[in-house]
């Protein structure tokens, strides 16, 4: 009898711990609905916002940045490298496009670099309660892996901020914003907010049948990662609204 009770207690405690741990630390983080795909295949994907800020926050806006490929950080097998994106991806540039959807967030726009390439997007004017999910739909173009590269996969690292309150950067906290960025030393590393150095990613796997690894590569090939630079994150994370009378920064607020 005692043994039985003890067993069921531990099972319940374990189940509770698992549920809490999973729901707060893994399942509910802001991630992509489809975290991996195959080279050469275009897909529709979603940024999935799993929860709002703190215990009771409401997400009113979100800002998303993709690496622009210009000064992006390129890691090979987990180590920093001096490689450029062109050495591993044959067609980088304008790979992403927001799919218009104003169902939850009433306003949105793409972010462009100087060449007109989409380097991110934002949504705003929404109200997502803490116990809901929200999906931000976008198209991920067909990424092609450079045939001369040893990359067997290319992981694209995103920088995302889910905003509950529009504040200056100095007021970022668990109650005002969830920052899902790579910690590369930008103003948006989000120390002390939810999700430090826990970015959403999209991994493009090499099509080994049609684009086999060239000779001289290791059998497994290289795991390449493309991460937006601190300079790009600082430039592209703010939500800048283009209006008839010019541009206006909506988030973050000036000090
Ligand atoms: Cu989370």
What does this structure look like?
The protein has a single domain, classed as Sandwich (Immunoglobulin-like). A 6-stranded mixed sheet has the order 2-14-11-15-5-6, with no helix packed on it. Mean pLDDT is 91; it is low at 1-18 and 20-26. It contains 2 helices and 17 strands. The chain is 13% helix and 33% strand. It has helices spanning 2-26, 230-236, and strands at residues 31-32, 36-38, 43-49, 61-65, 73-76, 79-81, 96-98, 107-112, 118-124, 134-140, 151-157, 159-163, 177-180, 201-205, 222-227, 239-243, 246-251. A hairpin with a 2-residue loop joins β16 and β17 (246-251). It is mainly beta. Copper (II) ion is lined by residues 28-29, 50-51.
């Amino acid at each position: 009898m005692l043994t039985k009770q003890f067993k069921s207690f531990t099972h319940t405690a374990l189940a509770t711990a698992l549920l809490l741990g999973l729901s707060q630390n893994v399942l509910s983080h802001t991630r992509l609905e489809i975290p991996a795909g195959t080279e050469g295949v275009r897909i529709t994907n979603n940024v999935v916002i799993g929860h709002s800020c703190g215990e009771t926050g409401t997400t009113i806006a979100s800002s998303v940045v993709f690496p622009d490929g210009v000064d992006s950080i390129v890691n090979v097998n987990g180590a920093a490298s001096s490689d450029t994106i062109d050495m591993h991806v044959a067609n980088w540039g304008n790979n992403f496009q927001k799919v218009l959807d104003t169902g939850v967030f009433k306003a949105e726009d793409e972010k462009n670099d100087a060449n007109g390439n989409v380097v991110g997007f934002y949504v705003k004017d929404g109200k997502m309660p803490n116990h809901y999910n929200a999906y931000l739909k976008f198209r991920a173009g067909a990424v092609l892996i450079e045939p001369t590269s040893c990359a067997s996969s290319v992981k694209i690292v995103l920088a995302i901020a889910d905003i509950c309150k529009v504040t200056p950067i100095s007021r970022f906290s668990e109650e005002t914003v969830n920052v899902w960025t790579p910690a590369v030393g930008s103003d948006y590393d989000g120390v002390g907010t939810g999700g430090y150095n826990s970015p959403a990613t999209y991994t493009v796997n090499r099509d080994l049948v049609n684009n086999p690894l060239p000779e001289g590569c290791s059998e497994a090939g290289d795991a390449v990662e493309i991460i937006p630079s601190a300079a790009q994150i600082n430039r592209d994370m703010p939500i800048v609204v283009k209006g008839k009378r010019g541009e206006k920064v909506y988030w973050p607020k000036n000090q």
